[in-house]
Amino acid sequence: DGGITQSPKYLFRKEGQNVTLSCEQNLNHDAMYWYRQDPGQGLRLIYYSQIVNDFQKGDIAEGYSVSREKKESFPLTVTSAQKNPTAFYLCASSIGPKNYGYTFGSGTRLTVV
Amino acid sequence: QKEVEQNSGPLSVPEGAIASLNCTYSDRGSQSFFWYRQYSGKSPELIMFIYSNGDKEDGRFTAQLNKASQYVSLLIRDSQPSDSATYLCAVTTGTASKLTFGTGTRLQVTL
What we know:
The structure holds two protein chains of two kinds.
Chain A: E1 4-7, E2 10-13, E3 19-25, E4 31-38, E5 42-51, E6 54-57, E7 64-66, E8 76-78, E9 87-94, H1 97-100, E10 103-104, E11 108-112
Parallel strand pairs in A: 2-11
Antiparallel strand pairs in A: 1-3, 3-8, 4-5, 4-9, 5-6, 7-8, 9-10, 9-11
Chain B: E1 4-5, E2 11-14, E3 19-25, E4 33-38, E5 45-50, E6 54-58, E7 61-66, E8 71-76, E9 85-93, E10 98-101, E11 105-110
Parallel strand pairs in B: 2-11
Antiparallel strand pairs in B: 1-3, 3-8, 4-5, 4-9, 6-7, 7-8, 9-10, 9-11
């Protein structure tokens, strides 16, 4: 079955530690996105990529980094510079957001311990 | 002013009633409009999209778009307890390469 897989489902980060969230899709979508969701604040865009080897900052990119070396994969690294990383992270992909919207992965819940 | 605004709710409706969810947006150039349903702790799932002014129906769901008023709504007929969720409105903006989301409206369908 085609879809988007995010892993892990739950992740715990210690202070000062970098962690990487995985996002893999087999939908053959060109565009991929990372959003962060906090209670009462909706989804906020972190980074997005419309094609392999290219990506753009979203509204809250500080403290995060991404890579897009393969069409299927768009990992997100939460660096120690991100001071408040506890949130629900959602990866999405699209064949063309204007006409088709997004397909979301199941999410990763990151908690700082 | 937020780009996409929704009343956070909760909106409480009795089972079998019509639930009406509203969304306004600020960018007159927005071209496409989407409604996602999100259950607690889960990821959003697409339930409706609309591009043209007027109504679009799909089963119990009807999306309504009024570009002149910059307003999009979702009607859920014969509401069921399983419809209890947060409903997110999203619009394409700028170069239409990404969606901007509202904060969502929490719907509670009561027995």
